[in-house]
Amino acid sequence: MRRVRTIAGDTANLLLYRELGRSDDSAEEALWLVNPGLAELGPALPSDMWVNLPELAERPAPVKPVTAWD
Q1: Is residue 44 a contact partner of residue 10, using CB atoms and an 8 Å limit?
Q2: Mean pLDDT, 10 residues at a time, the chain of 70 residues
């Protein structure tokens, strides 16, 4: 598990996108699970705080759009 420091103005989604390249629901849920109590800090995380990043297997499969001809 990798640890990173937050910077001023970080949110959970911004931190995930900057460090892992994704901020989907499963990545965000994994972040909350490996960092209990992180949600209590509010939407903007304090700067200079250590956060554990979840280890994610792979990116979720893209959703195939439905067309009128399907």
Answers
A1: yes
A2: 93 94 91 94 94 85 81
